[in-house]
Amino acid sequence: MDEPTGPDARGFGPLQRLYRARDAWFFLGASSGQLGTLAAVEGLEGIDRLDAVSLAAELERRIALLPAAVWSSGSLRRGWGHINFADRPT
Question: Residue 73's domain spans which residues?
Answer without folding.
Answer: 17-85
